[in-house]
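Why this split exists: single-chain examples teach little about how molecules sit against one another. For that reason, every record in the complexes split bundles all components of an assembly together and asks for one structure covering all of them. Below is a record exactly as it appears in the raw files.
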Amino acid sequence: MSFEPKIVAFLCNWCSYAGADLAGVSRAKCAPNVMSIRLMCSGGLEPAFVLKAFKEGADGVLVCGCNLGDCHYIDGNYKTLMRMTLLKKLTRQLGIEEPRIRLQWVCASCAEDFVSAVNKITEDVRALGPYRQNKVEVGSGSAIS
Amino acid sequence: MSSLKGKPDEDIKIGVYVCHCGHNIASTVNVEEVAQHAKGLENVSVARDYLYMCSSKGQNLIRQDIMQLGINRVVVAACSPRLYEQTFQNVLRESGLNPYLLQIANIREQCAWCHEHGPLATEKANRLVSGAIKRVIHHSSIEEQTVPIFPATLVIGGGIAGIQAALEIANSQQIVYLVEREPSIGGHMAQFDKTFPTLDCSACILTPKMNEVARSPYIRLMTYSEVVDVSGYVGNFTVKVRRKARYIDEDKCVGCGICIEKCPWSTDSEFDADLGLRKAVYTPFPQAIPNIPVIDRERCVYFLKGKCKACEKFCEAQAVNFQQEDLYIDLQVGAIIVATGYDVFDPTPISQYGYGNLPNVFTSLEFERLCSPSGPTAGQLKLADGREPKSLAVVHCVGSRDQNFNAYCSRVCCMHSLKYSHLFKEKTGGEVYQIYIDMRCAGKAYEEFYERVQGEHVNFIRGKLASITPDMSDSVDEEKLVLTCEDTLLGNIINVTVDMVVLGVALKPRSDSEKVAQILRLGRSRDGFFMERHPKLDPVATMSEGIFIVGCCQGPKDIPDTVAQASAAAARALAMVVRGKMDTGAITASIDENICSACKVCSALCPYGAIFFDETSNVSRVNRILCKGCNVCGAACPSGAISTRNFSETQILAEIEGVLV
């Protein structure tokens, strides 16, 4: 059986979730591999959520927030941007390949942005294959460069 | 990361309800299989599928199961929670369950509608339902809260927006504080000569409203005053207002104007866009409300050199008081309406237009003052050398629709440019050229006004102006201006020679709007204007509960739209004040005092200032009324002490587990 990636998406309630809903309303077809989890704000995404998803068997994680400047909570998505930049440094050291984590701004009327982000990460992760945990032994020294 | 093992003690009984939504879901997802899958999961007592869960029959299924089977958690797998979450919450509420013991799995918009029919769509629906089931186990009851509303409203800004809002509230016999920074209310509208498209005189329609403000027993007018701080929250704001020293006793002054007459010192009049002069003691314009002058400390010779006091000598009412100091007062209000207006774009940076160097290039606001009978030229159009202009060019979109300055359209400039054509023709009978990119005359009777002006032999040139230069040819002895622009309809570069140019400058956010946004905790959109709660469905409210935005501080708009928005905001404020209380959101953060390590990371991040530090017990605490539940604090808390109700770490981690099983 061919490999079907499992991807978790974290969407902010106000823009991205509405954008993802709009994709459905417009009957825009996208890969069925992405399971959305609704947050109030992308700035409320705890880095632990991303790590937890990989621990539970996800092959990729998509994080979506409002466009910069459009955050429902004034500037929550700037905090997301900073947090994701730091988190990616950590996940790289953990051996999680770069394309497995994707940050995408999706406005409430940007259904196409959501659909293309879903398709892109699905294809990227499909090409990488399943995420195998603990490829890098913690404490072996090689994880931290 | 807190442990997932700590499940609630009670016996969890979950009811799962999978909706067919007619064929909407059922044609793509095998809904019976989803219900069957749910049945086999931990804590699930009952799982059903039904044609339309949102119908009254569907809702009754849930009600019956809660009553008869003792279901104490509900998962509805149906359309987006953005559509029917409240409906199903009400079902729980009516059945005696807390509405937050519900979780929606969105298997329509984010599954059935965006995937092809097949096993993958059903598998995804199963995963989404599993996630909801795992999550709902960790749901707990949340008490919704109401806050009392103090029966007074603050309106910031006394332009037409603020005046209208204040009058609407006062006419309902509710108290309004109207705070205006300038010595008089009136705002930009008081500076205009005529208003489009009807050409009624701006002062004629505005001054009756200004007088009404002065007369109303329900309006506490504070001019020459600024809001310096706002604390508290919806229903109970404390507002600190700085009442700048007028150096004239408002209670004693009778408004005779003798002080102004006798003052020997003059300076540029801001009201006349610096084209005319005013005294050091002044009212901005003759119809000022209140009709009480202020002494400009920066210009008054007594303050500068310690000698003069001419005003004091002549004031029979003995109202002049050079010892007056700024006064800070605290107001208590339940709601705030922000009507701070706009600034006009300064075209100096567009050096090719020569504004500031070429004396006969004016901005639109300057032209308004030149046209006004109360303006510096008493309504006579005059060039710098005193001649009457015989030709005029009106340039559209100066600083608007321009990627170098402001990308947005300022909305009013096409119409006021047409108005200038008409006024110029009326006053001088001369030639008028409109240099426009697109004519945007959307509004009641606007297109008709455009047609009227077209019929008045105005030259319309479609193109962007490249430059304005002085006419250097020898044939003319009078000073002329040459405008070089592309006529995109002719496909030529053309030169137009005129006496006078008006630049239709952009409306911009106030230069201090960032500071005001901080004081009021408002968001700003990319263009810098204050951000509304929803661009279409709630363009009056803001994300700060109890604070409303009206007029051009929200975005450029004309007078009719401003007045309509002001009335809408007044209605919203009245709805709160008259009811005396309001419900606030249930989804808010809470801090576990036993875990909080007092690092204060959270309070620095909170966009609403909802977290304060309790010095006595050395922990941070959340003000539930201010908190909007974004969980930015929770995501940052290094101790894991913060949890947002209904979006807690435990709940999200459980949902992640569920969708990945």
